[in-house]
Amino acid sequence: MKVDQKEKSIVQSIKKKVQFFDWNLLIPYLILLGIGVFMVYSSSSYFAMSNLNNSEYFFKRQLMYAVISVLVVSFFSTINFRLLKSVGIISGVMFVLLFMLIYLVTLGVDPINGSSAWIDAGPINIQPSEFFKIAMILYLAVFLSNNQNKLANIGESYDGPAKENGKKRNTVSQIYQIVRKPLICLGVFITLILIQPDLGGVIILLSICVIMVLLSGVPFKISLATFGLAGAVYAVFIAFIKLVGSIPFVPTYMLERFTAYLDPFGDMQNSSFQLVNSFYALARGGLFGVGIGESIQKSGYLPESYTDFIIPIMGEEIGLIGVLIILAIFFYLVYYIFRMSLRIRDSFGQLVCIGIASMFLIQGTINVGGAVGIMPLTGVTFPFISYGGSSILVSSMAIGILNNIYIYDRMNDR
């Protein structure tokens, strides 16, 4: 009898939460998910037929991922909000991911595109670094929400505001004292991901960390200085690669691709091969495209046409106008999530919104920027649209978590 009552209580709780679903968040997500399934079929059919004798191979798998993803969104939308900020659960997930990353870089697996970043789990190749993005965002959100007062007071003196006694604390020292524990933890994960190597993943993770810390209450002048410093570090990094030509654990060909955008026509048969063919695809598509399924570049000219370079294939088939419409939907979603962070009253929820919006924004910008030659090629997929089980599941987990935060905020508003 007690079991039946408990089950009824759970069902009633879920029904109540469904009434508060944020359709302004979910509708753009579902549109992008549907576009992704459709475009994966179009962009992968030639490769799948030529190599697997089944033109629908990647389409069927992407459709399966999409169906599972909708279930994932439903699950994370309706679980208890407190579970999302449970230090024990987050720590447990991070421990499992740490074990998986250590396994990848020590025992080794067969590399895919030069990177040992995937674990074969039957119908899906699990990429631990993708799942770590969500774990890291939740971990940082818990930590930063518990330390917001300390972050807001950076730059003050020991006994009061610096203006009162002229004795100002060392800002760098203050920040380090506050963030040293997560810094060490995240440093271990990021090092393991770099060893795989996954340069794009490292860039995204570091960018998310910086944005979340700076938007968690740090004074504006410190945020501005940090962004300036990040830009300088990036410039030095690019110059270092060009001059030295090597970084530990990162193959030379990856670094050459990373800097190919600086001179895309300088090595068209090697490091710039993908980028130049991306240009050809976009140029051939013009404003309105050559038609769905009519791409030439996907027929062996542009590698990774259904993953990293799905945007150029879309540009070739549906044209610049079509791509801009899809990008408008995507960036509206990002904008909406950032705006959501301003409305949510729970500080943990605010920071999760900022972290997830940053993840989508950075990943989408890097993918599109690489395809059009204004940013380095890093092997980053486009959220919701590119083929990939881990990527689409992680993005859907993020949407479910955001919906959960929205539901929790609305239910507590009554």
Q: What do these coordinates show?
A:
Belongs to the SEDS family. FtsW subfamily. InterPro entries: Cell_cycle_FtsW-rel_CS, FtsW/RodA. With 414 residues, this protein is mainly alpha-helical. The protein has one domain. 70% of the residues lie in helices and 1% in strands. The chain is built from 16 helices and two strands. It has helices spanning 2-18, 23-52, 57-78, 81-84, 87-106, 128-145, 148-152, 162-165, 171-195, 199-214, 220-244, 252-259, 273-285, 310-343, 347-371, 389-411; strands at 119-121, 124-126. A two-stranded antiparallel sheet has the order 1-2. Helix 2 (23-52) runs antiparallel to helix 14. It is globular. Residues 157-167 have low confidence and may be disordered.
Which features does this protein show?
peptidoglycan glycosyltransferase activity; membrane; mainly alpha; transmembrane; 16 helices; cell division; two-stranded antiparallel sheet; cell shape; 414 residues
Low-pLDDT parts are 157-167
Query: What would the average pLDDT be, to the nearest integer?
Result: 84
Largest sheet: 2 strands, antiparallel
Instruction: Please state the oligomeric state of the protein chains shown.
Output: single chain
User: From the helix content, strand content and strand pairing, which structural class follows?
Assistant: mainly alpha
Shape: globular
From the alpha carbons, calculate the radius of gyration and give it in angstroms.
23 Å
User: How many angstroms separate the termini?
Assistant: 31 Å
The H-and-E topology, N to C, reads as: HHHHHEEHHHHHHHHHHH
Tell me the number of strands. 2
Number of helices: 16
Largest beta sheet: what is the strand line-up? Answer: 1-2
**How many domains, as an integer?**
1
Beta-strand share of residues: under 5%
Helix share, percent:
55-70%
Pfam families: FTSW_RODA_SPOVE (PF01098)
Organism: Jeotgalibaca ciconiae
Subcellular location: Membrane
Protein name: Probable peptidoglycan glycosyltransferase FtsW
